[in-house]
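User: Batch of two.

Assistant: Item 1 of 2:
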Amino acid sequence: MIDRFEIIGHDSPRPDAERIIFCDGTGGGIFQPETDLELSHWRPNKTPTEYRAGTSTEVCLRFLDNPRPGSWTAAVNNHVDVDGILSVYVLVHSQHALAHRQTIIQAAEIGDFWGWGEAPAQRVFQGVTRLMNSGEGRVVYDEAFKRIPALIDGTDAEIPEIDEALEPLRRGVELVEGGTIKRSLISEKLAHYVVPISVAGDDDERASYSPEFNEAISEKAGLWPQVRAWWDAERACLVSVERKTGWFHDLWFPGYLWADTEGLWQVPGLTYHDGMGSYDLDNQGLVAAFEELQRQESAPGCWGLGGIDVPFGEELQERFPLGGRFLDDEGKPAVSQMSPEIVARALAGVFL
């Protein structure tokens, strides 16, 4: 649809282009409302209501379904991540993107929302993140655009390595489906995963690992958020991981909450600021549940919750979508003496 695209810095001057579509990254001070269009889920944005969706990639696909009249000079983004790359891809390689719509959307969700995707989407995500980790800027976009078709159809030269790296996702789903990792619903919007030590192993760092935004899949985590999203993309999740002397307990929020999305469940009282760096949490039921867990806890440490004025509340915001956990006095995961059943009961009335 658009022949030209540019990747600019956040403080760069406006490209020499008459009509720009700013996709994923917003236009900010160089956006001209009389000529330009924003197709983004970053806060704040000026995306027209009819195009709003989840990822910016899906926003761009909705634009292709019903484009504004006239021609566009350039597609512009201001950063490198999977959703950003795929958003531009949708506008520049529109025919191929439309033919593989669901795969493209799922790949973006794996990156931006810690979401689930089927095997072709996983390969696109993993392949593109590998490129991101080895290059920057326009070079990454150009190489990704060349390789996306082969990542989807399975003919890319790196597919064997990529598939091997994605094994933790396949294994995680099998462990849950087979009942080794026990999944249950505490309430309509809160799922519970209980991970036995036979799966978690003795490595505390791996058992409590919190993946970064757009982090490539690896063996660093025992249970990736993307696995839980197969069942619980629009639920909070309590994850209880068995240790030799007790349990790690983590509360995870849906990975899309930082973005300006349409039609997805929101945690009551959680309000993100512009960008994705911080949020406020005004959910008295959740706060009260964590206070009760603190009163009952016999192990040294604190039940921390992001978005409120408590020890390590600010640090936990930086670990989103991890929202709360039991911590030691240095802010590291601590072993709780509370059983999974007790923690589940404390949270049972919060997410209804």
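Item 2 of 2:
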Amino acid sequence: MNKGKNSIKLQCYLYYYSFFVCISYIVMELMDANLCQVIQMELDHERMSYLLYQMLCGIKHLHSAGIIHRVSELSSVHVALCLVLP
């Protein structure tokens, strides 16, 4: 597996079958904050642009792999603060 600088550690992968449907859960390492908390911080334009760029690259990667995703609220997007704070 190619581990780049923006990779996160996968803790475990859980799945089970319910009514002939496979339900999957991916458990990853704990992040420092969620996107709702980061938006409330006073970040300069450069840091906010970098965060947005990283998010768009991640979404592009998911789409290119054919992964269907859904984010219902900002608090469900988790962020490592080392990416946004000096």
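Residues 10-83 form one domain.
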